[in-house]
Amino acid sequence: MTEIYLSATAKIPASTTNLGPGFDVLGIGLSLYSRVILEEKASGTKIICLGEDSEKIPATPDNIAYQAVMKIFDHFNYQPPGLQLTIDNGIPAIRGLGGSGTAILGGLLTANSICHQRFGIESLSCSEILSFATEFEGHPDNVAASLLGGVVVSAMEHSNKDNLPSVMSIKLLPPSDLRLIVAIPDFTLTTQKARSVLPDSVNFSDAVFNIGRSSLLVAALVTDNLDLLATAMQDQLHQPYRAKLIPGFNEVFEAAMSAGALSVSLSGAGPTMIAYARSSSNTKKISERMTYAFKNNGLNCQTQILSVDINGTKVDSPSRKSIL
Known about the structure:
Elements: E1 3-18, E2 22-41, E3 44-51, H1 64-75, E4 82-89, H2 99-119, H3 126-137, H4 141-148, E5 151-157, E6 166-172, E7 178-185, H5 191-196, H6 204-223, H7 229-232, H8 239-242, H9 249-258, E8 263-266, E9 273-278, H10 283-296, E10 301-307, E11 314-323
Helix pairs in contact: 1-2, 2-3, 2-4, 3-4, 9-10
């Protein structure tokens, strides 16, 4: 008897979120990628972690990509005889670049693709995948930006009919010459720790401040008024508190601005900081100044000059392997 085993591969872009004032709402897909490969096997379970910071990623059933795979298989009542899951990570881990979101999406989408191919059932929609991913993450900003690409604005309701978060996301396209100079210091900062320093409540005036800035930011990005970013990316809700966790935050900010950046913000919960500039700017100079400022505060960092990924996650059609 011939057994047919399927495989699927997802390529998922990193993301940066908050963008200053858009806390848990705004995100951008980045031209930095991880791949997740899911393969059916005759028996057993094997999880392989490769690439950037692979030693920080568990190769056990605790792996969040594996948990996402099993969530989809449970949804479709499918129990494969065996699995091999490979995470080829291209995104520095626990640095505020959406690495966990890419793993979740990779697991969800490859499992969804295999179930579609094996049973001929309709694939879960983009909206349904986003709901599953948000259930894992707790907020939609990272996963929406990685799934859809571009600039994404998201709002979440508590649950839909399947007891999953209901997420509304709109994708926007920023100016094509927008560049993001990403400075990744050599230490990790968990989202849990970064959230622990935030206050339980905020002043009404601070809330109004952030509503105005985040609205202006979206308008600036879609109308190519990037000179407004210095004002539009100001924040009162989270960066003033999280900055204390990042040695040299203020110095890195000022170094990037003095070198010609349009604005600077934390990437997600940090510790990565991102400067925004047009491609015609001296992005290399901005990168060098940010590196030097971190070094003056006792931290090595790697920098990358990225563009906005506008395509989002891509999934290859499952391949078939016949075994007698």
